[in-house]
Amino acid sequence: MVIALIFVSIQLQTALAEWKRHVIFEGVSNQTAIAGDYTKDGLPDVITSAGGKVRLLVAPDWNEIILDETEGYRFIHSETWDIDGDGDLDYIGARYQPGLIVWLEQPTGSMINFPQCR
Ligand SMILES: [Ca+2]
Ligand SMILES: [Ca+2]
After folding, report:
1. Is 72 left (phi over 0), alpha (psi -120 to 50) or beta?
2. Distance 91 CA to ligand 2 centre (A)
3. How far away, in angstroms, is 49 Cα from ligand 1 center?
4. 14 CA to centre of ligand 1 in angstroms
5. Given pLDDT bands bounded at 50, 70 and 90, which one contains residue 4?
6. How confident is the model over 55-76, as pLDDT tens digits?
7. Beta strands across the sheet bearing 53-58
8. Comparing C-alpha atoms, which of 73, 83, 74, 78 is closest to residue 106?
């Protein structure tokens, strides 16, 4: 039993050491990020609420698209889900104080005009 635990521990340490860091965005305060294939090209993208803007970072070059820059939207938690049931992922952002939860509906066909819903 002890030998098995040591073996598992060594395997876990080896696996953790193999994680490689990739910086995809930096320079402003950021408290939440969520990954998903928002452009439907098979590559994972990232949406972050950073520096007062909701930003979509598109893989593989992590090009930035501003989804929303409403004053005061500094979300500390985010999620994506198909809220309206139209088959694409929408963005949900939440802040702590004063409490606010917002969702942004992903438009059909274009990620640039990302209309806001509440
Ligand atoms: Ca993608
Ligand atoms: Ca949707």
Report:
1. left
2. 9
3. 18
4. 30
5. low
6. 999 999 999 999 999 998 899 9
7. 30-36, 45-50, 53-58, 63-68
8. 83
